[in-house]
Write a structure and sequence with these properties.
Order of helices and strands: EEEHEEEHHHEHEHEEHEEEEEEEEHEE
Strand order of the largest sheet: 6-7-8-3-9-10
Largest sheet: 6 strands, mixed
Shape: globular
Structural class: alpha+beta
CATH class of the largest domain: Alpha Beta
Strand content: 35-45%
Helix content: 10-25%
Low-confidence stretches: none
CATH topology of the largest domain: Rossmann fold
Radius of gyration: 22 Å
Number of strands: 20
Number of domains: 2
Mean pLDDT: 89
């Protein structure tokens, strides 16, 4: 467990951060620009000496009222928005520079290069790399120190869509083959939906709430459920026939299955879910699932409401018009059918 309590100021921003972060998977610090997320991340790394607080990583106290462990002894890796590679060294030199400091075996470095897809780039200089390639090298350099914790400060911010997907895929592969606890700073819902397991919402330097990703995404009292890209994320099992089975039934994926069967993360956007009182048999929508209404709340958009649906053991979101809600006489406990127009494989 990472226990982090920080109270101080960073310029005009008052920071009051208090969170317990599980030491497994990926935790996202999510919030608007200027919320203090990067300052918090840099403090965890030991890069903000003017900020003081309490920081404990499992049984190791890195900072308290009496002492402060310097950054180089914390065994924390960090990747910034800019890769920050040494321009006078090739890719191999950049990675081995970090590996030598941690006495990391060459076999570990080679495995990192293979997992991150940079084994054929080792002889290139940073100026010869694309943005996505450079960020994957930065990841390899941070991980070559064998950190206990990996901090990512909006590592996709300066990448185009293809490069962003490339680096996210590399991160997912890494988490499967060589798990390392990660704290990701982001202000984009699509990034946290795909990568995060735990979520800490930060606003104006303060923690709004901290919980599992899946529970916070569908909490109607929080802004995440009312965003344009609001979505529920469910854990499913991909079958060989292109079906994703979850607690509420089976979802048919668009197009041929390109991934082997196994566990997957599925995103179901609120705008892609409609509601019917009976299961349609003459509809182009193939994903029709039995569900029940949990509750209904006003959406941020005039004339629309947000309906939370229980589907198996999972909660889905549906954004429909207030007029439709009234015409269908929807209310808590009402049995309905969720019509899912589109499903996204996230991870």
């Amino acid at each position: 467990m990472l226990e982090a309590r920080l109270h101080g100021r960073r310029g005009p921003l008052a920071l009051s951060f208090d969170a317990r972060i599980p030491m497994q998977g990926c935790c996202a610090l999510f919030g608007p620009s200027g919320a203090g997320k990067t300052s918090i991340l840099r403090w965890i790394a030991g890069l903000e000496p003017r900020l003081r607080g309490h920081l404990r990583l499992d049984d190791t106290v890195m900072e308290d009222a009496h002492a402060r462990m310097p950054a180089h002894r914390r065994r924390i890796g960090m990747v910034f928005q800019q890769p920050g590679l040494f321009p006078h060294l090739d890719v191999a030199g950049n990675i081995h520079f970090a590996a030598r400091r941690a006495d990391t075996p060459a076999a570990h470095v080679q495995r990192l290069a293979d997992l991150l897809g940079i084994a054929d780039l080792l002889a290139l200089r940073p100026g010869e790399l694309s943005g996505g390639q450079a960020q994957r090298v930065a990841l390899a350099r941070a991980l070559a120190t064998q950190p206990r914790l990996l901090l990512l400060d909006e590592p996709f911010a300066n990448l185009d869509l293809d490069a962003r997907n490339e680096v996210m895929t590399a991160l997912e592969t890494l988490q499967q083959e060589m798990p390392v606890t990660t704290v990701l700073v982001s202000h984009l819902p699509q990034e946290v939906q795909r990568l995060a397991d735990h979520l800490v919402l930060v606003e104006a330097g303060k923690v709004v709430v901290s919980d599992t990703l899946q529970s916070l995404l569908v909490n109607a009292d929080l802004p995440l459920a009312h965003l344009e890209d609001a979505a529920a994320v469910v854990n499913a099992e991909l079958t060989g026939s292109g079906q994703a089975r979850f607690s509420g039934g089976s979802l048919t994926l668009a197009g041929p299955a390109t991934r082997p069967p196994g566990p997957v993360r599925v995103g179901i956007a609120a705008r892609d879910v409609s509601i019917a009182l009976s299961a349609a048999t003459d509809s182009s929508i193939s994903n029709i699932l039995p569900a029940s209404v949990v509750d209904i709340s006003d959406d941020a958009r005039p004339g629309q409401c947000l309906v939370r649906l229980r589907c198996g053991n999972d909660i889905l979101l549906a954004r429909i018009t207030r007029a439709s809600c009234e015409r269908l006489a929807l209310g808590p406990g009402r049995s309905v059918h969720a019509q899912v127009k589109s499903v996204a494989l996230l991870a």
